[in-house]
Amino acid sequence: MKSYLALMKIDLKLAMRMRSVIFFNYLFPLMFFFIFASLYRARQDPKLIIRVLAMVIPLGIVGNGLFGAGMRAIQERELGVLRRYKVTPITPLPLLVASMVTAWFVFMPYILVVLSISHFYYHLPWPENWPSLLVFISLGLVAFRSLGMVIASTANNMQEGQILIQLFYFPMIFLSGATIPMEVFPPILQRMSQFVPASYLVKGIKDMISSNQSIGAEWELVVVLIVAAAVGLTVGLKLFRWEKEEKIRKGAKLWVAAVLVPFLIWGIYNYVKSKGAAPAQWPQQKGTGSLHRDNGYAHRPRAS
Question: Can you tell me the distance from the alpha carbon of 38 to that of 46, in angstroms, rounded to the nearest whole number?
């Protein structure tokens, strides 16, 4: 236990010294928070801030997982930081666990900040199920950091790692509803979004904030995140490398797909279940050019 605590302390200090950690955990998602809040005119209807939260919180989780875990692990291996740990009586597991715990302590203040801004400035009531919301966000954070660590393990250098991370990052944030509202997508892209891992975060967070759902009501999403996290940690331990001179064979990169299997299976299940159903209709709000989904918290146009 002492080794775990010592690593967590060291990892937290190193994380707070990195500008990229501050940028991707706070400045980047906060920038999108205010942009989306302005576009949706959330000050006119406080309920619209729920949609903004359901977009920017997953955006922060995905960035924390892929860039925070993936890029940082590659950088530490390239700079020889991990090589120093190799000569000590330590295994990769404490390093991965310390990284997860550090990420939680670094990221959770951002959640408190955006919820506080939403409450005091946009007049959104505090979530009734705080524990469920925080547990769900924590599971999402662990799952996506696991994916980031697997990507880091399969990348042989920084350049290759950047390519792999961006190949995962941009489709996730654009096709999940984390940056572009899902309702503007054509039906085929709405179907495809069911296979995008970040879309589960968008749905779960939206339900918990708008409808005060407990984590038990979202148990299916919770199971997917837990399985993805377990698979990611297992694969990350299997492929962990201490030094940049240790190269990984090309076929081992397919292990990245293993972390996506739980999301793929659940996406197929949702697709089969919803096949043949009519696509959702999105009413347009009068007086603005934006679309708002009729999902219980959207602003409905008044009858003339």
Answer: 12
